[in-house]
Amino acid sequence: MSQSPPISKLILSDAEWRARLTPEQYRIAREHGTERACTGPGWDEKRKGVYRCVCCQTDLFESRTKFESGTGWPSFFQPIAPGLIDEHEDLSLGMRRIEVLCAVCDAHLGHVFPDGPRPTGLRYCINATVLDFIPDED
Fold this sequence. Notes:
Helices cover 12% and strands 29% of the residues. It is of the alpha+beta class and 138 residues long. It has one domain: Peptide methionine sulfoxide reductase (Metal Binding Protein, Guanine Nucleotide Exchange Factor, Chain A), CATH 2.170.150. Strand 5 (85-90) and strand 6 (97-102) form a beta hairpin. The radius of gyration is 14 Å and the shape is globular.
């Protein structure tokens, strides 16, 4: 079985992140914030394409793995490849959740829950504000 090559980390200073991102992108990605449901850009996008991390432009999710969860946030049942997403226990807000981060730049993306569809049974509930959607060229 072959292994994926190691991820090269993108490390920037706080000032560099602030210069690169909008205030809302910074609040969510760098300060572990959350957008209100149904408010992120393209949260209900239906076209085919790829979703990239807004901070480092790493391809994270494909539209074929997106599904309508009824939550108001983009939901996916798996990332493009293993190792692109880091997971950490999040005990904030008085509950136990699993936070998901971009493995390249450590941007907070959202959380993963065990209530998604087959084949994985997972629901990656991601803030639309920290994703750039790149539509397929037809």
